[in-house]
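Kindly go through the entry underneath: sequence plus fold tokens. Please state briefly how this chain folds according to its tokens.
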Amino acid sequence: MPLTSRCNLRCLFCSHRQNPPGVETWFLPPLKLDEVDTLLDFLDGERKIVIGESATRLIEGEPMTHPEFLEILTRVRRRFPSTPLEITTNGTFLTAKVAGVMAQLGPLEINLSLNSASPIGRRKLMGDKEAITAIAAPLVLKEAGIPYHGSLVAMPWITGWQDFRKTILYLARSGARTIRIFLPGYTRLTQPEMQVPPYFREQMERELEYLRGQTEVPLLLEPPEPKDLSPVVEGVIPASPAHRAGLKRGDVILEVDGRQPRSRVEAHRMVSREGNRRIVVFKKQGQMAIALNLKVPKDGSGLTFTWDLDPDVLDILNEKQRRHRAEHILVMTSELAYEAVKGGISLLPGEWEIVKVKNIFFGGNIACAGLLTTEDYIAAWRQWSAVNFRPLDLIILPGISFDFFGNDLTGRHYSVLETVAGVPVETLDPNI
């Protein structure tokens, strides 16, 4: 649910500052209250309502810059009395007074993009000249009883490793349920001094292993780059049902109520259902069964997993194969998702091939499917077809690369690939 594209800070890592020419984005002025009322008619009250998280071509600003922010939350709650709300904020407006009002409008949770727990670090990373309110926000949220998840974009070559470590441990001590650590993305237009150093992911993984010895709060590295589909527990939220049951990071979920999960995503869904769950896990000391009782579904199990492959994808692939009566199918995917998708299609009958698509349009270290363009897919197809001569029956692309009309971020339709390749092309999104 977008409210405004306005932002009160100027973050070094803001993706909109690095967009190549040709990217279609839209700036949204603060919505009027009657426009908010109209927007509410299109929301699904059975699903979590997300505010401030960028997921479309709309530029998402800081939602709390909206002059009627609390009134909007009140209207949302009036329309949807029990639907969970999720709000992403940089924390600059999270005073005790605001948090007190928000606490009365639950259930809600906050994604707090703190990035640094020091005024100097916030100024360097975000241009925040009044950082005191944001730095106090974790304690304010804890005092108000509002559950929150902390996050930071890791740029220790700018803030220093000491600032990075102190920020994570401060969030952990201040009640964060999880802490997400984002590896910064950069495009071909980014200045060299802002680009991620070589082998930074490996360095960050070592650093997080050290910090996990200092706190039980799950430290989650994003974007994920899973190498397989093994349902390994990434972390366990303290004081959660899973924590009380004795589950730990590194445990492998073998069965949930007699069913074997096919991926981490499926394991998370299976263990998060309300009721009594019987979980068989593999621990360092061997296999054991654990009982998990979830009375309140909104609280969840407390288990966190690295995102790998949604099992619904396998059903969609099967359906498209049957509908086209295809025997030889090519699946195109991003660099980050390649290993997970490769593991998934190995579970399917038929002859499947997979191509890793490099992001040429954005360049830099951009490797996610949401930023791939039609031209990227065409380039990958040409490279693949130059050495593979057997005819294809179908090409399948990630739906997240395209909008509802099938256009990429530059406004080009995915069917252009069909014309170039001479092969039917579909996306994984059934709505496109």
In short: The chain has a mean pLDDT of 93. The chain is about 30% helix and 20% strand.
